[in-house]
Design goal:
Distance between the termini: 49 Å
Helix content: 25-40%
Bound molecules: 1-{4-[(3-aminopropyl)amino]butyl}guanidine
Largest sheet: 7 strands, mixed
CATH class of the largest domain: Alpha Beta
Number of strands: 13
CATH superfamily of the largest domain: Vaccinia Virus protein VP39
Structural class: alpha/beta
CATH architecture of the largest domain: 3-Layer(aba) Sandwich
Strand order of the largest sheet: 9-8-7-10-11-13-12
Shape: globular
CATH topology of the largest domain: Rossmann fold
Number of domains: 2
Low-confidence stretches: none
């Protein structure tokens, strides 16, 4: 009875979360990062990149509901979507539930992530074989938005790793400016914004948010419960040229779609944008 554990450190040497490993499914050094897939009895299959948990079968529904549905509730007329990162497929899966969306371009830098998830995490990756509107490209998202035509997308979802590592460029003013240009007039940018509880995390959030605020007239932050990310509560940024996530939300229209979601609903939408004082202070 071997006792093998995966630990993610939240503070350098005194706080960590550990998941017992029942099975090591995959370990690979890709050209971009170290990719590991494990199985834990409670959380199911989970994927780790460079030592940080990215996605688990048990709690991915929270993250993937929240990266997609709040924006769709604010602008139900979104037709063209760009996903940057998101190699597990969970973000694309949620986007694909909207019949009104015409095109989903997805730019993932690391093909190995997609291949491993296809093999071990069908609950997120099955979208790759089932969704004809999805155009998956293996490329650098930074370069992609630089070259994309102005106004090409109504929604950009940045489903990235943390600001250190291959995702670094996705937390820069240059990138946010490119997103601004590539978005249509009612365009929305949602991006991975880190946690806010531990010192390092809140610093990153503060920096990222200051850069977005410089670029977009509307820049907000919203949170959601994430048992396997540091502190159990995580944030996305909502940035837009014209639409306010609270004032412009359309609960009737969204509810009329009849989508079944396990985390998101239009009441929770309002709560998610209501922030604790220690977060408000740094924004
Ligand atoms: N994207 C990464 C979320 C941040 C993880 N960070 C961490 N554990 N320190 C998740 C990908 C889901 N599609």
């Amino acid at each position: 009875n071997s006792d093998l554990w995966f630990s993610e450190y939240y503070m350098d040497d005194d706080v960590k979360l550990s998941l017992k490993i029942d099975e090591v499914l995959h370990v690979e050094q890709t050209p971009f990062q170290k990719l590991e897939m494990f199985r834990n009895e409670t959380f199911g299959v989970f994927m780790v990149l460079d030592g940080y948990t990215q996605v688990t079968e048990k709690d991915e529904f929270v993250y993937h509901d929240m990266i997609c549905h709040p924006a769709m509730c604010v602008n139900p007329n979104i037709k063209n979507v760009l996903i940057i990162g998101g190699g597990d497929g969970g973000t694309a899966r949620e986007v694909a539930r909207y019949k009104s969306i015409e095109k989903i371009d997805m730019v993932e830098i690391d093909e190995a992530v997609v291949r491993a998830c296809e093999k071990f995490m069908p609950s997120t990756s099955s979208v790759y074989s089932s969704e004809p509107r999805l155009n998956l490209m293996f490329d650098d998202g930074l370069k992609f938005v630089k070259e994309a035509p102005a106004g090409a997308y109504d929604l950009i979802l940045v489903d990235s790793t943390d600001p250190a590592g291959p995702g670094e460029g996705l937390f820069t003013v240059g990138f946010y400016q490119d997103c601004f240009r590539v978005l249509s007039d009612n365009g929305i940018l949602i991006n991975q914004h880190e946690g806010a509880f531990y010192d390092g995390d809140i610093e990153e959030m503060k920096k990222a948010h200051a850069k977005i605020k410089k670029t977009f007239p509307i820049a907000k932050v919203f949170g959601f419960n994430t048992p396997t990310y540091a502190s159990g509560y995580w944030y996305f940024g909502f940035a837009s040229k014209a639409l306010d996530p609270m004032k412009d939300m359309k609960p009737e229209a969204w509810n009329a779609l009849g989508l079944e979601t396990r985390y998101y609903n239009t009441d929770l939408h309002k709560g998610a944008f209501s922030l604790p004082n220690y977060v408000k202070e740094i924004l």
